[in-house]
Structure formats: structure tokens, C-alpha cells
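re the bet — no i am not wrong, look at it urself. input seq straight from the record:
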Amino acid sequence: MGQVLAVLDLQRVYEVKRSVFSVKKDIIHALSGVSLDLDQGKTIGIVGESGSGKSTLARCILLLERPDGGTISFMGKDLLGLPKGELKSLRKKMQIIFQDPYSSLNPRKKVFDTIAEPLLFHEIVDRKGVKGKVMEILKNVGLDEGFVNKYPHEMSGGQRQRVAIGRSLTTDPALIIADEPVSSLDVSIQSQIVNLFLDIKDRTDIAMLFVSHDLNVVRFVSDEIMVMYKGRVVETGTKDEVFLNPLHPYTKMLINAAKGEFSRREEDAAFDESKGCAYYPRCEQRKAHCRDSIPRLTGSKEHKIACFPESGGKSAHSS
């Protein structure tokens, strides 16, 4: 399968005022050297707590935010170096599904118009063929023709998310980024939407980035897992490697927390993240050198970890 997306050393920095009345600013490294490769038909699950950089990464890949460094190659083309005209034609091949389907859908538009608009705009079908195509897309996301004249407020959260997923499929995308697509839904509905993603995965060769803080959801839909903490990738690998043989202390903590087994070390408020491992203040296995050195992501293609072996207790090379 061909490569759809290649991200190399992506950087994103924010300057944030310390308070409304302060002129001093803090520098926030939202992304610090993030890299990934995504092939056609594959899904990478990106996990981490709030503030880990997951959504910033998604927005930078789609150029909803401009990264401060690094490269993004999509379908063999350098997105950051493309002329506007060429970039516009590529954008339809990249789609995003947001967390809240109610805010991402136009409340004044019926479902038919929501689905039909991108079909007509991108000249995928003409006006004669648009009705049949809309019905086909709705059927593929589990909705019948009775939904075509409904407005977003007339549907449940799960139904609205199905419409949003259907809209993302209208342009025959090569890449879909799903940013916490089930976190706002009732638990009873989440499994239905996850199954819809699995169905899309089985029926198409679309590459997907599935962003979530919920490890149980990510495990179902992903081929590979990328664990992020404070803008850095701390562990990557195949789904089975990461879940059955977690190496980084942070990954282990996330998995234990998902099982209800949670413990947290008191944080070191004086710690400087620019000099040492970002997880140092919370790590149960930290050593003195972790405070002064940033570990590199190393290991095999199947499993990599950014942790000093003598701290995490295991190296990626031994996985």
C-alpha cells in the first residue's frame, strides 16, 4: 500500500500571557519534533491526556494552523510548500470529523443540503445525480431516507455524528482525521459509531488518524498506536505491541487508568521541561539524569519508545 501521509519533526509553539495584566509571556511547546508515517488503508490511533498535543497535531496536518517547523507530505506533495491553487485542489482529499457534531453541522441546513453541497461544489455529481448519491452516502453511514429533510436539532448526537461522517466521505478522501469523534456521545452510542468507523475501514482504503483520550476506543479501530505527552511522542508501535507490551511509564499509567488502577506521583513544580524528559515530574521510575536529558524515540519499526532503559526498566530494542 502506498504512503498517504508523512510528517517529519513537526513543531508548534505558542506564546501565552501569564495573566490579563501581565506583559510577560510563557512559551508553550505544543508540538516538539512529532513525526509519523501513514499508509493507505491504515489507521493510527493517537492517544494522550488533554494538553498532549493531539488536536494541535491534527490541526497542523490539515493546515488549520501553520506549524512553526517540520514538513508535511500528503500524497507525495509538500503541503507547506504548495501554491494556494494546488493546495486547494488537494484539500478535498483531507477531511476532519470533529468531537461535537452539533457545532460542526450548520443548524440551518437540512441533512440533504449538508451532504449535497460538497458533492456539487467539487463537481463530483451533477444536479441530476445528486439525490441518488446523497441516499447512497446516508445508507453507508446507517441512515435511511427519512433523515434527508431533518435539521441537526431534530436528531440525536449519534445520528448527527453519522451525518458528519457521511459528509466527510463525499469527496472520496485519501485521509480522514477523526478528532475525539465519540467522546461527546452517550456510552451506549459510542460503540455504534466505532463500528461505523470499522465498517468504513473494511469497505475503503482511506487512511485515518483517530485521535482520542480513550484507549479502549483506540484499540478497536487502530492498526498502530502513537502515545503523546506534552507535545512529544513517547511511544509508538503496533496495536498489540503497545497494549500487550507497554514500555513507557506514561503508556503504562494510561492503560492502568483505563482499568481503574490509577496512581500519580507528586509533581516537581521547579522542573524545566526544555532540559529533561517531560514526564519526569510524574514518573514513578525516574532517575536523576531524566531531569537533565531528553530521551530520543528509538527502537524497531514495530515498537519505539522515548525513555532511558534504566528509567523505564525496559528498552524498545528488547520488545
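see?? Residues 235-319 form one domain. told u. also The chain has eleven helices and twelve strands. so pay up
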